[in-house]
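Incident log, entry 3
Record: Peptidase M23 (435 residues)
Problem: checksum mismatch between cached and fresh output.
Input:
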Amino acid sequence: MKFFKAVLFLICVLGVTNAFAQSSAELKRRREKLNDELDQLNREYQETASNKKVSLKQLNILKAQINLREEKITNINSEVRNLDNQISQSNNSVRSLQGQLDQLKKEYAGMVLFAYRNQSAYNKLMFIFAAKDFNQAYRRLKYLQQFGTYRERQAGYIQGTQRDLHVKINELDHDKKEKNNLLANQEKEKEELGKAKNTQVKVISDISKQQGEIKQQQRDVRKRIAQTNRAISNAIAREIEIARREAEEKARAEARAAAAAAAKAKAENREPAAPSTKPAITKSSTNSQILNATPEAARLSNDFLGNRGRLPWPVANGQLIHGFGVYTDADGIRNESDGYEIRTNANAPVRAVFEGEVKVVTDVAGAYLVLIKHGEYFTAYSNLKSVSVSAGQKVSAKQNLGTAATDPSTGDPTVIFTLNKGKVPQNPKSWLADN
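Fresh output:
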């Protein structure tokens, strides 16, 4: 019974350990990805640092480095907490296994002593012949046979428990070493973070000496973003109006057909067909009703919604410069972003996040904008140097749309991604998968 309890305990411990291991593996993968991104930023910063003239690009790289280091420190904290839990579980396992081993050894010692006292064949025979009757003698004979088998089995349990104990002690030592390495790595990252923040202060100070030029760059950026947002908003409004007119015309055509069918049924003295229960598109219809007026559009909307949180990023590799909502630029001016501004590699392919139909391909402030319709949802990809699709073309998820352009103000290859439900901008964080 004790053995089965021990097995049950080990199964529970292994289950918990496995859950921790899975989480630790994910955290480790994220830490390694952050390391790769930091290495890339360090290389790019060294390239910009060789230029005596301080630029917004340097400041943006420093901001990205600081954000990544802060995220890495948070990631390490989570890894350390996981290891603390694993160490605690391992300590409990070691104590439990040691207690089981002590108990098994104690029981085995008692069996050995009993066997020693009854080792002679004479004593065994006397034990059997001292029985009251034949049945009792038979049971005593079976007992002696089972006792030997049980003693061998107990010896096997002791060896197995010793092996498990040795494995757990090794795991415990490994976890402690890994924790110490992580803590050392964390201290190093904190030191690098402090250096990056000091460098950022110096760069901001140097930039302030070029304030006139920098302010003009920032005005150009804000102007370009405003132009892009207007182009997207106007394009979506046009698509909604086109969909409204098409739906209204279809409704009128269906009404005329229904009236003609009713008149024919009356002339032939038949019952007219039951009127359609589908609501007609009118001036008071919502944008959602208009954009989902056809079965194909409704299906695409449902499929797009069903992939919320799992959509791929519009670039394979990228770091977020500005997220959705209000942010403050280097000049202290508050801005509002309708989507994600993503820093990526030079000439990086830009891809569709979901299947849909390209509705707009246009030039905005010297760079291309691509707008794709997914039922009642729209995704927009701006600041493209080149495009490989055209309006009216059906595209699939991850299909190449073009290549990222370099922002003339910052020198960074960037892509601006926005997602709308009808006319309402959505936060891409809720829709895109973890990068």
